[in-house]
């Protein structure tokens, strides 16, 4: 290998390392304080690089923020979605109970480490409270595919009196409950006095399934006669 080739490879490695440091520190800071409270200088200082590096790799702060979601948040969310999809796709004619249980397990037990989930939760909670362009990215690449998957599964087992609007509201209610229990972990632990451990998650999953099935059946029974 020539010295010129070696120098070029070292340069490429350095550039990639700088980009990864920027993403790592940007994710950490955005999760801690939100997009609007963090400046480019905060990120470059934490990443130990100059401000021009953000321009070079991402053009501006918003593009860096969007890349944090594209390359980090969305892949983690897809891991949970894929855990759910793999489970239900392995079943023959899954029941509503099995579908809801698979969804709750994928998101409440999930494939993420505690550290990964902490950043994941902080980022999306801040984005929900103060939406940016990243919100549409999240909706388009994670929420809509999940909704479509759930709709197709539950549509196959829905009763005759369950119309499109009812089913859509059921899905949003079920996923809303799961998201609440998932993203409110610190508060739930404080209120209940219980550690958010494996046993507690198992009890939550049972509750989500029971509560969701009761809500669906109650709504069906209370549906007005045609």
Task: List the defining traits of the structure above.
mainly alpha, Arc Repressor Mutant, subunit A, 0% strand
> Mind telling me the C-alpha Rg?
22 Å
Percentage of residues in DSSP E strands: under 5%
Helical region count?
10
Classify the fold: give the CATH topology of the largest domain. Tetracycline Repressor, domain 2
User: Which architecture of the largest domain per CATH?
Assistant: Orthogonal Bundle
Please give the CATH class of the largest domain. Mainly Alpha
Task: State the secondary-structure class.
Answer: mainly alpha
Biggest β-sheet description? none
Specify the CATH homologous superfamily of the largest domain.
Tetracycline Repressor, domain 2
Q: Quick one: overall form?
A: elongated
Question: Helical residue percent?
Answer: over 70%
The average pLDDT score comes to 89
N-end to C-end Cα span: 80 Å
Topology readout:
Layout: H1 3-33, H2 40-47, H3 52-58, H4 61-89, H5 96-108, H6 114-129, H7 133-155, H8 164-183, H9 185-192, H10 198-221
Protein described:
- By secondary structure, the protein is mainly alpha-helical.
- The protein folds into two domains: 49 residues, Homeodomain-like (Arc Repressor Mutant, subunit A, Orthogonal Bundle), CATH 1.10.10; 152 residues, Tetracycline Repressor, domain 2, CATH 1.10.357.
- Helix 4 packs across helix 5.
- It is elongated, with a radius of gyration of 22 Å.
- It starts with a helix and ends in a 5-residue tail after the last helix.
């Amino acid at each position: 290998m020539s010295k010129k080739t070696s120098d070029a490879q070292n340069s490429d490695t350095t550039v990639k390392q700088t980009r990864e440091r920027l993403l790592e520190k940007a994710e950490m800071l955005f999760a801690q304080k939100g997009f609007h409270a963090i400046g480019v200088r905060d990120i470059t200082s934490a990443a130990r690089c100059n401000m021009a590096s953000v321009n070079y790799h991402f053009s501006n702060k918003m593009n860096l923020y969007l890349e944090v979601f594209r390359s980090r948040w969305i892949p983690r969310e897809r891991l949970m979605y894929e855990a759910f999809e793999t489970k239900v796709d392995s079943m023959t004619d899954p029941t509503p109970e099995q579908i809801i249980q698979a969804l709750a397990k994928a998101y409440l037990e999930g494939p993420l480490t505690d550290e990964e989930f902490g950043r994941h939760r902080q980022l999306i909670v801040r984005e929900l409270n103060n939406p940016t362009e990243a919100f549409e990215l999240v909706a388009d690449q994670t929420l809509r595919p999940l909704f479509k998957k759930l709709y197709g599964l539950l549509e196959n087992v829905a009763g005759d009196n369950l119309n499109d609007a009812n089913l859509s509201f059921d899905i949003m209610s079920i996923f809303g409950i799961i998201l609440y229990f998932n993203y409110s972990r610190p508060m739930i632990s404080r209120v209940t006095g219980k550690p958010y451990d494996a046993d507690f998650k198992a009890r939550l999953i049972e509750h989500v399934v029971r509560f969701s099935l009761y809500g669906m059946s109650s709504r069906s029974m209370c549906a007005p006669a045609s």
